[in-house]
Amino acid sequence: MARITIIGGTGYAGSHLVAAAVARGHRVTSYSRRTPSSPPAGAKFIAFDLLDGGQLPRAALDTDVLISALSPRGPLAGQTRQLLADLAERARAEGVRFGVIGGAGTLRISENGPVVQDTEHVPAEFKAEAREMGAVLGDLRESDQALDWFYVSPAAGFGSWAPGAATGTYRIGSDVLLTDSEGNSEISGADLADAVMNEIESPRHRRARFSIAY
């Protein structure tokens, strides 16, 4: 059993992570601006807003893995990079593994092709979000070697608008966008969470990014 703290455990990605972690018998604590009206059994939810100026409570670092499921949109736009840099430094100081659920924007279309965020596949209104998460990945890659981190790039079609279902069958990649035979890049919330739990239980990507898609 691992102790897992999830920042943003009530959002789309975060709620799937909480559910998967509980199902596997891990001890899960979620910090988010609001707590769910009907929290799932087996997880602890704590209301906390990182934008209020206070530091995440010390108890949040009493964990094996700290995962951010934050997205740089709404009030977090332009703020997420620094917030995650601060969390990464605290994780390093406490010897806690740090995971980030990012996006597909920094994946390459092909081995030597452009990154997704620089193509027409990303609408203009989402480019700033993609670039901020790309900067987070860059910061992690340049971080102190003592920080044990991983960064997850879901498929390009990952999101609440395409929830999909749990299949337990998917592919793990690295820096190139994974697509199926028809050129689609998709992954369900449940399967993304399954892959993240596998990484927590049997680490294969230390100080590295990995991608997930069908």
UniProtKB/TrEMBL annotation:
GO terms for molecular function: oxidoreductase activity, acting on the CH-NH group of donors, NAD or NADP as acceptor. InterPro entries: NAD(P)-bd_dom, NAD(P)-bd_dom_sf, Polyketide_Oxido-like. Residues 8-203 form the NAD(P)-binding domain. This is NAD-dependent epimerase/dehydratase family protein. It comes from Orlajensenia flava. The lineage of its organism: Bacteria, Bacillati, Actinomycetota, Actinomycetes, Micrococcales.
